[in-house]
Design goal:
The chain is mainly beta and 265 residues long. It folds into 2 domains: 181 residues, Glucose Permease (Domain IIA); 72 residues, TTHA1013/TTHA0281-like (2-Layer Sandwich), CATH 3.30.2390. 12% of the residues lie in helices and 33% in strands. The strands form 4 sheets. Strands 3, 6, 8, 9, 10, 11, 12, 14 and 15 form a 9-stranded antiparallel β-sheet that branches. The protein has a 4-stranded antiparallel β-sheet with strand order 2-1-7-13, covered by helices on one side. About 15% of the residues have low confidence. Bound molecules: zinc ion. Zinc ion binds next to loops.
Length: 265
C-alpha cells in the first residue's frame, strides 16, 4: 500500500499578509502566537459532546484539524490541487472548498487525496474545475457553518481507485474516510528568497525564525534583516527550547549566506 506520507505533503492552509505559514500543527502554537491549533483529529473532548453526536452508533470523531485566530487570516491552498467544489455547505462546513490532488500509483494501487477547508467568512474566491498551486488564496477565515468561533477546519481523506471508480482508502469508521493529517504536514519549514525579501513583514508576525545553512552547518535566526549567528551553538540550541523543530529545521537552499549582513550574539 502507498505510504501517504511519502507522496502527499501539505502546508498549513493559512497565511497572513501574503506569507504562507509552514510547520506542523503541534509546533505551531509555540511559534506563531496569534494562531492556535484549536482542535486535533479524532475523539477530542469537544467531539464527544452532544453537538457532534453519534455516527452508526459510535462516537463521531472530529474528522479534521482546526486552527483558530481572531486576526484576519487568509485561507490558502495547502498543496497543488484541483478544486472540485466551493459553496455553502449545509452539513456544517459553512463556506467551504473541496479539492483533490493528482493521483499517485505504486505497486498497482492508485490513490489521491481529497481535502476540505471550511468555515470561511464568505464564499471562496478560487475558481472551481481548475488546478491551483500551493499558497493560492481561497478566502478568509470565518465562522460560518458549525463553528463556535473563527477558525479553519482542514480535513483530508485518501481515495483508492477500484476498477473505474473510487472508494475510501480506509473503510467507513465514523470519520467517513477522513484521516489524521498530522504526518502529512510538512515538518521542515522551507523559506525561499521571497520570504526573505518580505522579512520586515514576516518579523511583524513571528519574532523568531530559525534557519540552518546546510553547507556550513551554521544555525541562527533572522532579526532586523540580519542573520544572527550564535557564538555557542549548544547554548543557542538549549536556549531555543521548544522553538527548535530540529537542528536541520529550516533550509535556505537559494540563499547566499556569505552576502547576508550578520551579527554575533
Ligand atoms: Zn473542525
Amino acid at each position: 500500500m502507498i505510504s501517504l506520507k511519502d507522496h502527499f505533503k501539505i502546508h498549513l492552509p493559512i497565511a497572513k499578509n501574503g506569507i504562507f505559514w509552514n510547520g506542523k500543527p503541534d509546533e505551531f502554537s509555540n511559534i506563531y502566537h496569534n494562531l492556535n491549533y484549536s482542535q486535533q483529529f479524532g475523539l477530542t473532548p469537544f467531539a464527544l459532546t452532544g453537538v457532534y453526536g453519534q455516527f452508526n452508533g459510535k462516537p463521531r470523531p472530529h474528522n479534521g484539524h482546526d486552527f483558530a485566530s481572531n486576526d484576519i487570516i487568509d485561507i490558502v491552498m495547502p498543496c497543488k490541487g484541483w478544486v472540485s467544489y466551493t459553496g455553502l455547505d449545509a452539513g456544517g462546513y459553512g463556506n467551504c472548498c473541496f479539492f483533490e490532488t493528482e493521483t499517485v500509483t505504486e505497486n498497482g494501487d492508485t490513490v489521491k487525496m481529497e481535502f476540505v477547508l471550511g468555515h470561511m467568512k464568505e464564499l471562496p474566491i478560487i475558481s472551481v474545475a481548475h488546478w491551483h498551486e500551493a499558497g493560492e488564496k481561497i478566502g478568509q477565515m470565518g465562522k460560518t457553518g458549525f463553528s463556535t468561533g473563527p477558525h479553519v477546519h482542514h480535513g483530508g481523506r485518501p481515495w483508492l481507485k477500484v476498477g473505474d471508480g473510487w472508494q475510501y482508502l480506509y473503510p467507513e469508521d465514523g470519520a467517513r474516510g477522513y484521516i489524521d493529517l498530522t504526518d502529512l504536514y510538512i515538518e521542515k519549514p522551507i523559506y525561499n528568497k521571497q520570504d526573505l525579501i518580505n522579512e520586515a513583514n514576516y518579523m511583524a508576525i513571528i519574532d523568531k525564525k530559525l534557519i540552518f545553512n546546510n553547507d556550513t552547518g551554521e544555525i541562527g535566526w533572522f532579526y532586523n534583516k540580519k542573520l544572527r549567528v550564535p557564538k555557542d551553538i549548544d547554548r543557542f540550541v538549549k536556549m531555543l527550547g521548544s522553538y527548535l523543530v530540529s537542528k536541520e529545521g529550516v533550509n535556505l537552499p537559494d540563499v547566499d549566506f556569505d552576502k547576508l549582513p550578520r551579527e554575533e550574539f
